[in-house]
Amino acid sequence: TSPPPTATPTLTEKPHQSPETTPPSPVREAAPAPASVWPWQDWLALLWLGGTAGLALWLITGYRTAHRWIGNAVALTDPAWQKILTEECQRQSLRRIPRLLVNPEVPGPCVAGCFRPVLLLPACCQDWDLETRTLVLRHELAHVRRGDPWHAWVRALALTIHWLNPLVWIAVSRSRRDEELAADAAVLASGTPPDRYAATLLS
Asked: pTM (2 decimals)?
C-alpha cells in the first residue's frame, strides 16, 4: 500500500495591485509665496529719508558758502567804520565787538558765525554815507545781540528733520520774518525816522 498523501501548506498571497489601482497618497501643496510689496509705512520712511538727506546737503552747502565768504573776505579797518562799530556795540551792550569783513560775493549785509559772529558787507559799502553805515550796522548788530545766528541753525535742523510737516515750514518762514522785524524795530527804537530808514533799505 502507498503512504497517504501529506497535505502541503499553501501560502495565501495578497492580490497584486497595479499602480493604476493604488490610491494616491495625500500630498500637501506648498503655500504660495507672499508678494514682495512694500507697505506704505516703508515708502513713507524712504520719502522722509530722501528729503532729510536733501535738506542736510542744502544745510552743509550753506555752511560751506558762508565759510568761503569769510575766508575770502578782507578786514575793514577803516577808522571811520571802526568808530561807528564801537559806538553801536556800546549802544547795544555787546561785550565782544565783531569783525567787519568785505567780500564782493556777498549780496548784502549779513551776519555769519555763531560762536564768533562777523559782519559781512558787500564791496559797495565804501560808497555809503555816514547815516547808511550807522543804520546798517545797527540792524546787523541787533541780530548779533538777539542770537539770531543760533536761531537760524535751530530752524535749519528742525526743517531738516520735520520737513514733511507743513506747519514747520510756516513756523520757519514766520520766524525769519519776525527776526527781520525785530531788528528793524531796534533801529526805529533808537530814534531813526521811519522814512529815512525805509529809504536806506531801498537804496
From this structure: 0.76
Angle, to 10 degrees, between the axis of helix 40-72 and the axis of helix 148-161?
150
Q: What is the pLDDT of residue 178?
A: 97
What average pLDDT is seen over the chain? Answer: 86
Burial label for 103, CB within 10 Å (0-12, 13-18, 19+), is middle
How far is it, in rounded angstroms, from Cα 183 to Cα 5?
Answer: 134
In angstroms, the CA 101 to CA 87 distance is 18
Give the span between the Cα atoms of 129 and 13, in whole angstroms: 126
Q: What is the DSSP letter of 190?
A: T
Q: Please give the single-letter amino acid code of residue 30.
A: A
Q: How far apart are CA 199 and CA 195, in angstroms?
A: 6
Quick one: pLDDT at residue 35?
Answer: 53
Q: 114-148 burial string, b = 16+ CB within 10 Å, else e?
A: eeebbbbbbeebeebeeebbbbbbbbbbbbbeeeb
